[in-house]
Amino acid sequence: MEELKKSTYIPRYVADEIIEYIELTEQGYSKCMKWENIRALLRLAIVNNRITRTQADNIEKTYCREK
Predict the structure, then answer these.
(1) Residues 20, 24, 27, 32: is their CA dihedral positive or negative?
(2) Is 35 exposed, middle or buried (0-12, 13-18, 19+ CB in 10 A)?
(3) Residue spans per domain, the chain
(4) What is the mean pLDDT of the chain?
(5) In the predicted model, is pLDDT for residue 1 greater than 70?
(6) Strands (E), 1-48
(7) What own/partner pairs with CB < 8 Å and gap ≥ 24 does 53-60 have?
(8) Cβ neighbours of residue 33 closer than 8 Å, sequence gap 6 or more
(9) Which residue of 38, 51, 60, 65 has the lowest C-beta tally within 10 Å?
(10) pTM score, two decimals?
(11) Is the pLDDT of residue 8 over 80?
């Protein structure tokens, strides 16, 4: 059985950008500048105490397709 992950709250403005990024990469477009914008939004969410640094790292590991 697969281990369940703890849920992470993702601010709406970050989630919208991640969804658009995933849709574009699925269509075959490389959007590294889009991912840089998402990184900036993640940093903003950390500064505004919306998410923790660990949560931001987990979001990046889960959704980044630039590596």
Answers:
(1) negative
(2) buried
(3) 19-63
(4) 84
(5) no
(6) none
(7) 55/8, 55/9, 58/8, 59/8, 59/10, 59/14, 59/18
(8) none
(9) 65
(10) 0.78
(11) no
Q: Are 9 and 52 in contact (CB under 8 A)?
A: no
Written as one letter, the residue type at 4 is L
pLDDT of residue 57 exceeding 70: yes
Helix or strand run (H / E) with residue 15: helix 12-26
Supply 21's token pair: 């990024």
pLDDT digits (tens, 9 = 90+) for 24-46: 888 887 767 888 999 999 999 99
